[in-house]
Amino acid sequence: MRFNRSTSVALAGVLSLGLLTACSSSSDDSTTTKPSGTAGADQVTITVAGLEPGAKQDAVDQLNARVAAFETKYPDIKVEPQEYKWLASTFTTQLAGGTLPTVFEIPLTDGKTLIQNGQLADIDAQFKELSYAGDFNKEALAAGTGDDGKVYAIPAKSFYDVTLHYNRDLFTQAGLDPDKPPATWDEIRTDAKAIYDATGVPGYGMMALDNAGGWQLTAAAYSRGGRVQTTDGKTYTATLTDPAVKAQLQWLKDLRWEDNSIYPGADLGWGDINAAFAAGQIAMFTSGSDIYNALVENNGVTADFPYGLAPIPVEGADAGALTGGTFAAVKVDATDAEKEAAVKWIDFWYLSPLLDQTQAVDNATTRAAANQAVGTPVLPIFSRDQYELSLSWVKDQINVPLDHMKPYTDVMFDQPLVGEPSRSTQPTYGLLYPIVQAVLTDKNADIDALLATANTQDQALIDQGKEE
């Protein structure tokens, strides 16, 4: 994979080597762990982050089927799934209140901070029992490793990059070719207006309700070659006034007040924009490349939905698609028995389907039977070869519209990638999303002034080491 130079993120190279380097084992027994015990042994109960809140019954049924299979394999472990969605704003409260599940998910960017704060369990010993523990890309695993060299969080889901999601039917109704989606921000603007003029449906939607709005503004700015943070390796500098950030805000403002082609409200968060897109209320939006799974699980999207997937425009020097990933962690007060059971679940639920043919087929079969997505394109956490091998195992179960995802899959391994800002990530997004709201709701919003104020505030947060 080709990568651009990035001065903004200490973890900018986390994903690079693992995507193409053959670093993982592909033997069928590669995901085995030490036996958990036999029926009659002292039973351990763990709670696990299962699905996003509001998941459809089919998704719940598929998860329950996998839980049953896990409990058959490990009869001394009882698994209780619960709805869970990572939010930096609620994590500390959940931790203090004892309401976190035993196994929960965290974003790549928050791993180091949570480790340094002593908020994740040390699962190094249990991790090392995995037969493929040495097969992870070392740079990726480093994001879940503490300064003491111990593992506190495990790469658990394939990584994503921010992409363009679009409604093919709305393109057709506007006289546009859905097999040739827009490749530049100017083309997105032109197509958004054409769709609105022809159908009355907003041609574009923008997350703006919460930190997701700052995340997607950052993604767009990075795709234009900008940065919201730079570093010389020691000092981190807020750069919210970067011309690319201003250019994207002006672009949004133009869509709203000149073209009238963007969803006019500021009330779309991550889940809200998914729901609006699934309901045909917007034609295009940007989000993670893996979002099709959530559209199926939470929004009832089916195989006949006119879904299209394309890369985010990448324009100019240092431009790239913003990337991220998900790690699985264990609550800090877990007992040794709970930690052992938790890592077995992480192995079974997240990782075995990527490395073991039997587990891959079993997982894909239950997903397909429950009308869940199989084969959604993602960036692999082990290697490209292993990723493609795992897809070959489940080719008969793949049910996603791959033909309509070709604009993305044709280039997914060639896109330059850029990591998220590595200091005060969520606070930075929290300062940016009100500016997105401002340009969508106030025709006279002063972008320069808003960014200047936010930049001063952001630098203070970075200097204070503020991460929440």
TrEMBL record:
Keywords, in A-Z order: Signal
InterPro entries for this protein: Bact_solute-bd_prot1, SBP
Protein's UniProt keywords contain rRNA processing: no
Signal peptide per UniProt: 1-27
Superkingdom of the source species: Bacteria
Keyword Transmembrane helix attached: no
Official protein name in the record: ABC-type glycerol-3-phosphate transport system, substrate-binding protein
Organism field: Sanguibacter gelidistatuariae
Lineage: Bacteria, Bacillati, Actinomycetota, Actinomycetes, Micrococcales
